[in-house]
């Protein structure tokens, strides 16, 4: 089997294991994280209605120019999503980290979001 195909298959398996344990609702939406080499983005998703309630990314106009695919960028996105969630009226979420481990940028994002008032 091709090495890249094998890696992708393992990622998909890990993602499904994480996602099967949680579903988002209007009270506790699913906070879906996407991490790439250059950027970090997050969405608050209501799975019952099939809607995205709020989103934030390092590509947004509100993000600073120097923010990119690093821990500072992830923590900036954590603060932005907490502000947008409070504007919509969301205080508690369920974190869906996908196939990413809880360290580095994902951990920096989660700590910044918790400090800004989100509960998960």
- Compute the number of structural domains: 1
- Mean of pLDDT: 89
* Top-tier CATH class: Alpha Beta
What CATH calls the topology is Nucleotidyltransferase, domain 5
**Low-confidence runs of at least 5 consecutive residues:** none
Q: Based on Cα principal axes, name the global outline.
A: globular
- Quick one: how many beta strands? 4
| Main beta sheet strand tally, sense and closure | 4 strands, mixed
Oligomeric state of the chains present here? single chain
Helical segment count: 3
From the coordinates shown, what is the CATH architecture?
2-Layer Sandwich
**Structural class of the secondary structure composition?**
alpha+beta
Main-sheet strand order equals 3-2-1-4
Beta-strand percentage?
Answer: 15-25%
Keywords: Ribonucleoprotein, Ribosomal protein, RNA-binding, rRNA-binding
Protein name: Large ribosomal subunit protein uL18
Family: Belongs to the universal ribosomal protein uL18 family.
GO molecular function: 5S rRNA binding; structural constituent of ribosome
Describe the structure.
- This protein is α+β, with helices and mostly antiparallel strands and 120 residues long.
- It has a single domain (3-115), classed as Nucleotidyltransferase, domain 5 (2-Layer Sandwich).
- The protein is 38% helix and 19% strand.
- The chain has helices at residues 3-19, 71-88, 105-115, and strands spanning 30-35, 40-46, 51-57, 94-96.
- Helix 2 runs parallel beside helix 3.
- The radius of gyration is 14 Å and the shape is globular.
- The mean pLDDT is 89.
- InterPro entries: Ribosomal_L18 (IPR057268), Ribosomal_uL18_bac-type (IPR004389), Ribosomal_uL18_bac/plant/anim (IPR005484).
- Belongs to the universal ribosomal protein uL18 family.
- It comes from Rubripirellula tenax.
- This is one of the proteins that bind and probably mediate the attachment of the 5S RNA into the large ribosomal subunit, where it forms part of the central protuberance.
């Amino acid at each position: 089997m091709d090495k890249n195909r094998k890696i992708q298959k393992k990622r998909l398996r890990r993602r499904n294991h994480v996602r099967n344990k949680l579903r988002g609702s209007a009270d506790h939406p699913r906070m879906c994280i996407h991490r790439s080499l250059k950027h970090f983005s997050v969405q608050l998703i209501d799975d019952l209605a099939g809607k995205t309630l709020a989103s934030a990314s390092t590509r947004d106009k509100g993000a600073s120019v120097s923010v990119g695919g690093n821990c500072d960028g992830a923590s900036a996105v954590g603060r932005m999503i907490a502000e947008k969630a409070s504007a919509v009226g969301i205080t508690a979420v369920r974190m869906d980290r996908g196939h990413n481990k809880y360290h580095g940028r994902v951990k920096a994002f989660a700590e910044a979001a918790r400090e800004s008032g989100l509960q998960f």
